[in-house]
Each structure stands twice: as C-alpha cells, then as structure tokens.
Design a protein that fits this description.
By secondary structure, the protein is α+β, with helices and mostly antiparallel strands. The protein has two domains: 68 residues, VC0802-like; 65 residues, ACT domain (Alpha-Beta Plaits, 2-Layer Sandwich). It has four helices and seven strands. The radius of gyration is 16 Å and the shape is elongated.
C-alpha cells in the first residue's frame, strides 16, 4: 500500500529541473506523477516512478541529492467533497497531512491523491476503515 517517492533537491535556477528529468529520460525511467515546490534558493521535486530504485541510482549518479520517502495514494470520487471525505477519517484518527498532490488516472469520475502523513500505518487503517481505496501502485495514462 505504501508507495516509494523520491524527493530531489534542486538549485532554484534555470536548467535544474531539466537536468533531473533528463537523467530519468536517459535512464528510460517513466514518471507516474510528480510535484514541484520551491523556495527562493532551492526546489523539491517529488516523484513517484515506475522503478524508484533505478531512478534513485540514476539521479544520484547524475550528481543530484535524493531522499526516498513513503507516501500513500488514495483513489477518490472526483466530485465536490471528495477530498473532504478522505480527510475526515484521517483527522478523526489524529493523523496530520504533511503534504499532498493530485494525480489523474484519466478514469471518468475518479482522481488520485498522493499523501505524506505523519503516521502512514494509522492513516491506512483509518482510510480502509472508512471504505477508501488505498492504491498499491499507480497506472500511467495510456499504459
């Protein structure tokens, strides 16, 4: 149920993002989803890859700083209140959302949310107890 996510630390300057993505392209590693956040001096590129171990190795060989973290992917109804329905059981369990980002499956009426929770095991238990679909892997559009 837990997915492996890579966080790549990038200098906040032109070409840094392209360099990281170029390393993955050269290694023929497909990206399932990603998010990019920045500050004035650096950015964090969060990636869920088809092959995270190979991706981590390629990025490190490319001179990039990489951290591996566990996240959860939760499929939700793509409707008003869909996210609130996911957050209610997690909040009731006392679990904090550290960050999240969305992923589209292309399936009509569905969305996927990637979460980093303060306690992944407790979040899984709360979500499954509420009937939520916690995914074991992501599907790439067109795959």
């Amino acid at each position: 149920m837990k997915l492996q996510q890579l966080s790549v630390f990038l200098e906040n300057k032109p070409g840094s993002l392209k360099k990281a993505l170029g390393v993955l392209a050269d290694a023929k590693i497909n990206i399932s989803t990603l998010a990019l956040a920045d500050t004035r001096e650096f950015g964090i590129l969060r990636l869920v890859l088809k092959d995270w171990e190979k991706g981590k190795e390629a990025l490190e060989k490319g001179g990039l700083t990489v951290k591996q973290t566990e996240v959860l992917a939760v499929e939700v109804e793509d409707r008003p209140g869909g996210l609130a329905a996911v957050l209610a059981p997690v909040e009731a369990a006392g679990v904090n959302v550290e960050y999240m980002y969305a992923y589209s499956t292309g399936a009509k009426g569905k969305a996927v949310l990637i979460f980093r929770f303060s306690d992944l095991d407790k979040a899984i238990q709360a979500l499954k107890g509420a009937g939520m679909n916690v995914l074991e892997k992501l599907q790439v559009l067109g795959a």
